[in-house]
Specification:
The chain is mainly beta. The chain has one domain (about 5-105): Sandwich (Jelly Rolls), CATH 2.60.120. About 0% of the residues lie in helices and about 45% in strands. It has strands at about 5-10, 15, 25-30, 40-45, 50, 55-65, 65-70, 75-80, 90, 105. The strands form 3 sheets. A 4-stranded antiparallel sheet has the order 1-8-3-6, with no helix packed on it. A hairpin with a 5-residue loop joins β4 (about 40-45) and β5 (about 50).
Length: about 110
C-alpha cells in the first residue's frame, strides 16, 4: 500500500514547514475557502508567494519539508498526498491471446 500524507495547518505569524522531515511525494496543497487573508508560502527561505482563499495546486515529486507557510489565525491550509505508482499494462504473451492483455502491474494512487 502506498503511504498517504494528510496535514491540516492552522496558520500563524510563524513560518511552519509543511512536513517536519524530508517527505518527497505528490501533494495537493489547498488554502481554505474561508480564509480571511492570503496565505504566504516560501521555498528554502526564498521569496514569499501569496495564495488567496480557495486556491489549490498539485506538486509532483516535491519535498514538503522545503516549503513553509504562514498567515493569520484561524486561517488554514490542507496538505494531502502520497506516492503514486505507475500502472503498466502488460502485452499479450507470445503466441497467445489470453491472460496478458488484461493484466496490470502496480497500483494507482
Amino acid at each position: 500500500m502506498a503511504p498517504i500524507f494528510i496535514r491540516s495547518i492552522t496558520l500563524s505569524a510563524t513560518w511552519q514547514k509543511l512536513a517536519a522531515t524530508r517527505t518527497v511525494l505528490t501533494a495537493a496543497i489547498t488554502t481554505a475557502s474561508t480564509n480571511a487573508q492570503n496565505a504566504q508560502f516560501r521555498v528554502d527561505g526564498g521569496p514569499t508567494v501569496l495564495w488567496p482563499a480557495g486556491v489549490s495546486a498539485t506538486l509532483i515529486s516535491v519535498d514538503l519539508s522545503r516549503i513553509e507557510v504562514k498567515g493569520t489565525s484561524p486561517d488554514s491550509v490542507l496538505v494531502t498526498g502520497g506516492i503514486s505508482r505507475r500502472v503498466i499494462k502488460l502485452p499479450p504473451p507470445p503466441g497467445g491471446n489470453g491472460g496478458g492483455s488484461g493484466a496490470f502491474f502496480g497500483m494507482g494512487f
